[in-house]
């Protein structure tokens, strides 16, 4: 994968096809790769709306992969840390206010050496979840650099949210919640603290994004405008509790 325009490269097309197969309805006998199943997947791909693209960004080790796995599978990847190589994605369908919203969530590598790969994907992102680790001050200090990068590569109207992850590690915390709130306010982005380990606010972060994207894409005339900031403020719960 290089700097080719997403959507036109061979790699991208392959990933889209793989995503369709992965999410298409399972064949009754479970033969995932047989012809019937493949044609159903193709049909499904043509008839369903394109997924809304959400990207996870932030320093290496802040918990992007774990957050995605928690959201997708409800599990926590404990144990030794394996860094993401390049970029990976998972699909998840959410029901938002009675409407099915399909999210394609891109898990990017936080390591500097993969930065050029990530840059190529920003343009297609409808939403970005920018993470830092509350037990790692450097990851918080780097948020400004991430925001500069987002400003340079992402769409101007991209939905952005700041997440302070790993709040379950209270004893190792070095970034106060107020500091996260202050930074988010400075940049005008919604903010919440999360834990991929306990599940705190994980579902909420993705649901809030899905709601905003759904309201933007449907624009129903009589529907009141959805206010992401207000929704997050209202719904977010303290890290002392255990929302999942
Ligand atoms: N305590 C705690 N540990 C976490 C949490 N989220 C992730 N971790 C741990 O942090 C380490 C890094 O997590 P990853 O999800 O792989 O980090 P990443 O941001 O995807 O890293 P890159 O792929 O290198 O960009 C792993 O050892 C995880 O088990 C969390 O919410 N709480």
Automatic annotation (TrEMBL):
Family stated for the protein in its record: Belongs to the small GTPase superfamily. Rab family.
Organism lineage: Eukaryota, Metazoa, Chordata, Craniata, Vertebrata
Alphabetical list of NCBIfam families matching this protein: small_GTP (TIGR00231)
Pfam families: Ras
GO molecular function, one term: metal ion binding
Stored InterPro entries: P-loop_NTPase, Small_GTP-bd, Small_GTPase
GO BP of this protein: protein transport
Name of the protein this chain belongs to: RAB26, member RAS oncogene family
Keywords: GTP-binding, Nucleotide-binding
PROSITE patterns listed in its UniProt record: RAB, RAS, RHO
């Amino acid at each position: 994968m290089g700097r080719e325009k997403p959507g036109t490269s061979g790699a991208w097309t392959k990933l889209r096809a793989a995503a369709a197969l992965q999410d298409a309805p399972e064949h009754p006998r479970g033969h995932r790769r047989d012809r019937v199943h493949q044609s159903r997947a193709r049909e499904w791909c043509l008839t369903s709306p394109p997924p809304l693209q959400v990207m996870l960004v932030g320093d290496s080790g802040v918990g992007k992969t774990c957050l995605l796995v928690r959201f997708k599978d409800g599990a926590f990847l404990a144990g030794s840390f394996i860094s993401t190589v390049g970029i990976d994605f998972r699909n998840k369908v959410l029901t938002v206010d009675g409407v099915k919203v399909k999210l394609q969530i891109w898990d990017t590598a936080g390591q500097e050496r993969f930065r050029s790969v990530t840059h190529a994907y920003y343009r297609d992102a409808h939403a970005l979840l920018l993470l830092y680790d509350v037990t790692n001050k450097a990851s918080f200090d780097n948020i400004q650099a991430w925001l500069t990068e987002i400003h340079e590569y992402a769409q101007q109207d991209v939905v952005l949210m700041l997440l302070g992850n790993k709040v379950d590690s209270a004893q190792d915390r070095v970034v106060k919640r107020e500091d996260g709130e202050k930074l988010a306010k400075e940049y005008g982005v919604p903010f919440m603290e999360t834990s991929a380990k306990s599940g705190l606010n994980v579902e909420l972060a993705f649901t809030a994004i899905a709601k905003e994207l759904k309201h933007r894409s449907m624009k129903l005339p009589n529907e009141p405008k959805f206010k992401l900031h207000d929704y997050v403020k209202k719904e977010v719960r303290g890290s002392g509790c255990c929302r999942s």
